[in-house]
Amino acid sequence: MMDELIARFPDQLEEALVIGANAALTAPDRIDQVFVTGLGGSGIGGDFVASFVRQSCPVPYIVGKSYQIPKWVGPNTLAIASSYSGNTEETLTAMTELLRTGAKVIIISSGGQLIQMAREKGLDHILLPDNWPSPRACLGYSLVQQLAILERFDLIDQTALTQIANAAKTLRKEMDDIQERATRIAELLHGKTTVIYTTDRMEPAALRFRQQLNENAKVLCWHHVIPEMNHNELVGWRDRRDDLAVVVFRNRDDFDRNQMRLDINKEIIGHYTGSFIEVYSKGMNLVEQTLYQVHLGDWVSWYLAQLRGVDATEVRVIDFLKSELASR
User: Fold this and answer.
1) Is 190 a catalytic residue?
2) Can you give the pLDDT at residue 151?
C-alpha cells in the first residue's frame, strides 16, 4: 500500500496544482506575516514552503507545531491551518486561538472538524481529496496549497508553482533510477542507526527523511544541518561507531563554503564510521532538488521497511496515543 502511495507522488503534485489554481479565496486588505499551524505530515509542508520562499516572500513565513500560537498573530496575519484529517488535536486547539485574533484564516484539509468549522464560520478553505489513507503520503497537497495561497495574494510569483510542475515531470522520468538508488541505500542502512546531514536550506528534506524512517521503517534516527552542526555535533564524533550510517543530502550548487564544510566533515566522520553515503540531488533549482531528495528518501524508507519485515503503513502506537489522550 505505502509503495503505491509513494509512486503516486508526481501525480499528486500535479493534481495539487489544479486544486490550488481553482481554490476560492478572498484576499485580506493587508498581510504583515504568515503563520502556519500543522503537525506531522501536514505540518512539514509549511517547512518546505518556508525554505522555498525565504528569498522571495516579503513577509515572515513562520510554522508552528503546537497547541499554542504566537502572541504576534493578529488582524494583519495570514493564518493557515493544515491538517489532512481535519481532526488533529493540536491544530484544532490552535484554530480556537486563531479565531480570537482577527487573523485571516485559511484551512487546508480533506474534511473532519476543521472543514466543519470552516463551513460553520464562513472561513476560506481548500478541500483536499479524502481518499488517501495516510496523511504523511499527502505532502504534495499540503505544500502546493500553501504556495498557491501565497501566489494568489501576490506574496510570491508563479516561479515556485512552475518549478513544482517541472519537478513532477522529473520525478516521473527518473522513477526507475530513484527506486534503484533507494534500494541500494536501504541495504546500506539496514541494521544501523541513520544519521542525516544536509545544508540549512535543505533541512526540510532531511526532516522528512527522518520522519519517514520513523513511521515507515519503524527505526530511530536523527538529523542536523550544516553549518550549525559544525559548531556542536561534530565534536561528538570521537569514538568508532560502525552501528551508525551517515546519509548526506547534497546539491552541486550549494553555497561554496558549505560544500567545503561537507567535504571536511566527510574526512572527519570517515575516521569513525565506514558508512558515509552522499546523495546528490537532480534538478535545476531548490524546489526540484528538494522534491527529488524527498521522493528518494520516501522510497528508501519503504525499502528499509521491507528489509526489516515491518508494515510501512501501520502506526498503531500513534493511534494508541490518540485514544489515550481522548479518554483522558
Assistant:
1) no
2) 97
Lowest mean pLDDT among 55-64, 128-137, 169-178: 128-137
Query: What type of residue is 95?
Result: M
| Same-domain check for residues 24 and 75 | yes
C-alpha distances (whole Å) from 295 to each of 9, 11, 17, 302, 314 are 8, 12, 18, 11, 20
> Is position 325 within any domain?
no
pLDDT at 186 (0 to 100): 98
Instruction: Please tell me the distance from the alpha carbon of residue 234 to that of residue 265, in angstroms, as a whole number.
Output: 8
Q: Report whether 42 contacts 84 (CB < 8 A).
A: yes
Residues 157 and 18 in one domain: yes
Residues 115 and 180 in one domain: no
For residues 137 and 13, state if they share a domain.
Answer: yes
| CATH code of the domain covering residue 215 | 3.40.50.10490
267 is catalytic: no
| Same domain? 126 vs 189 | no
Q: How far apart (Å, rounded) are the C-alpha atoms in residues 178 and 18? A: 26
Whether 322 is catalytic is yes
Q: Is residue 321 situated within a structural domain?
A: no
Q: Which of 4, 71, 120, 231 is catalytic?
A: 231
Among 147, 166, 185, the domain-final residue is 166
Note down the domain range covering 220. Answer: 175-308
Residue that is last in its domain, among 109, 136, 166: 166
* Total of domains in the chain: 2
Marked catalytic residue, from 190, 224, 266, 322: 322
pLDDT band at 103 (very low <50, low <70, confident <90, very high): very high
Cell of 159: 516561479
pLDDT for residue 134: 84
